[in-house]
Amino acid sequence: MRRTAAAVAALTLAVTALGTAATTATAATGQSVTACPTGWGSLDKDAASVNYAPLTNARTGRHDCYDRIVFDVPGGGTGVGYRVGYVDALYQDGSGDLVPVSGGAILSIRLVAPSYDPETGQSTYPGRARQPLPGVDVSGYTTFRDTRYASSFEGETLVGVGVRARLPFRVQQLTDKIVIDVAHTW
User: Fold this and answer.
1) Residues 90, 150: contact at Cβ < 8 Å?
2) pTM (2 decimals)?
3) Count of CB atoms within 10 A of residue 75's CB?
4) Based on the structure, what is the number of domains in the chain?
5) For residue range 29-41, what is the model confidence (pLDDT) as tens digits?
6) φ, ψ dihedrals at 6, nearest 5°
7) Would you indicate the residue range of the signal peptide (predicted)?
8) How far is CA 140 from CA 8, 93, 128, 145, 164, in A?
9) Could you tell me which of 70, 79, 133, 135 has the fewest CB atoms within 10 Å of its CB?
């Protein structure tokens, strides 16, 4: 009984000390500690397509808790379909060629949005097979390591994102955009 009481007292003191140390570190740096949501999971996520419009742009951003990639699909509203999930390797649609992607894990992003205008066949997004996404530089990102354009085939665009490790991610459909956030930690 005495040992249990002593152990509980020691544990309480240790937890209090850790809390005080974190508060002191926060006060000393003048920065607040951000609570990061990571309950998104790392399983595949998808949505059926109800609108069809071409991809026109991709861009990334860094946030306190996650790295973000945004795909612009003007005219797609909130109905652009997608399939996002981790894969062991990324293969180009049509040819089946391997698309090398650097990082500890590969996030495959398939958008039901071609990189060309279906009416004219003109390119709407200048991606080139097995090349980094045009205008996207993920140097210095916490989670992202690489981006690769795989293909635009039969009305779908396939992109690979190399990430540090298999981490939780979420997908959001916003008006004319698909937004994918990959958490920095579990």
Assistant:
1) yes
2) 0.82
3) 12
4) 2
5) 566 667 898 899 9
6) -65, -40
7) 1-27
8) 43, 30, 23, 8, 12
9) 135
Residues 28 and 49 placed together within one structural domain of the fold: no
Contact indicator for 56, 114 with CB cutoff of 8 Å: no
Claim to verify: residue 106 and residue 78 sit in the same structural domain: yes
DSSP of 28-57, one letter per residue?
A: HHT-PPPPPP-TT-SS-EEE--S------E
164 lies in a domain? yes
Would you say residue 88 lies in a domain? yes
Report the C-alpha gap between 108 and 68 in whole angstroms.
14
Residues 7 and 90 reside in one and the same domain: no
Q: Which amino acid is at 13?
A: L
Dist. CA 55–CA 72, nearest whole Å: 6
Each residue's pLDDT tens digit, 92-129: 999 999 999 999 999 999 999 999 998 999 999 999 99
Same domain, 55 and 18: no
Question: In angstroms, how far is CA 3 from the centroid of its own chain?
Answer: 48
Sign of CA dihedral 164, 168, 171, 172: negative
